[in-house]
Design a protein that fits this description.
The protein has seven helices and 16 strands. The chain is an alpha+beta fold. The N and C termini lie far apart (52 Å). Bound molecules: L-MYO-inositol-1-phosphate (LIP).
């Protein structure tokens, strides 16, 4: 595995990315087929918190995916939302969200996805997001473009907030929802439309596909959005923290836009949060 340096950026081996992308796509498709069937049946639901759910299908999906990935890449690190792990030391690491949109899935609300990210030294370099209910496979790899069911995708060309369709999400920690509610109110007054769909990975994938113009959320986990970061960047998106700082995979926030709107989004976030400080 030869990694090349481009300026200060060490670039992952393109052959590794292609192999990882193709294997993860197959694993996501297989896990998605399982979820498409399981959403119709009785789910066994347990609580990680008051409104933080996990179902038996989350665990089955993560077991299936982690076995496929570690079988082919035993030396890679791996972290799954439901506890799967891999090797201890490697430049490469998998992040698995076996069901992004677990609350939706638990209620039989058909808006959820399988999300698989490969990161290289902490940078998302491969993203796979599969929506089994629409049979939509979003794929992106660094330097290899972004696709939806094999067709190239690009972010939208919307230039104004009042012309934009945005999305956000809210924390499982009810006490942490005040900030999200304040941002919701501020953007709802300025955007053409605002959505809260309950699946961060699909929000990221839909910005990449030009269906959404902007998405932001805090707190949100790396396994929720890491795959979407790899896909959205390849589709021309700008991805930062909410206040416009460099995105950190192991941070707990993301702002993802078509690029044309990014500064307007970040400024409105900063103004709103400053107002909360009083
Ligand atoms: C969910 C995200 C959603 C966020 C929820 C939760 P999960 O991920 O997709 O955007 O608002 O709090 O983090 O738990 O369904 O994988």
């Amino acid at each position: 595995m030869e990694n090349q340096a481009k300026g200060t950026l060490v670039v992952a081996d393109q052959g590794v990315l292609r192999n990882a992308r193709d294997l993860a796509e197959k694993a996501a498709y297989e896990a998605g087929a399982l979820l498409r069937e399981r959403v119709k049946t009785e789910r066994v639901i347990t609580h990680k918190g008051t409104v933080d759910l996990v179902t038996d299908a989350d665990e089955e999906s993560e077991l299936l995916i982690s076995r496929r990935l570690l079988g082919a890449f035993p030396d890679f690190r791996l972290a799954g939302e439901e506890g799967a792990t891999g090797a201890v030391e490697s430049d490469y690491g998998w992040l698995i969200d076996p069901i992004d949109g677990t609350t939706n899935f638990a209620h039989g609300y058909p808006h959820f996805a399988v999300s698989i990210c490969l990161e290289f030294r902490g940078r998302p370099v491969v993203g796979i997001i599969y929506d089994p209910m629409r049979d939509e496979m979003f794929v992106g790899a660094e330097g290899q473009g972004a696709t939806l069911n094999g067709e190239s995708i690009r972010v939208s060309r919307t230039e104004t907030l009042i012309g934009a369709l945005g999305a956000t999400g809210f924390s499982y920690d009810i006490a942490a929802r005040q900030e999200g509610a304040a941002l919701w109110a501020a953007f709802n007054d300025r955007l053409q439309g605002l959505r809260r769909d309950g699946a961060a990975a699909l929000n990221m994938a839909w910005v990449a596909a030009g269906r959404l113009d902007a998405y932001w959320e805090r707190p949100v986990n790396g396994w929720d959005v890491g795959a979407g970061v790899a896909i959205a960047r390849e589709a021309g998106a700008t991805v930062t923290s909410l206040e416009g700082n460099p995105y950190q995979l192991h941070g707990t926030e993301v702002a993802c836009t078509n690029g044309l709107l990014h500064e307007q989004v970040v400024v409105l976030v900063r103004e709103t949060l400053d107002g909360l400080q009083g």
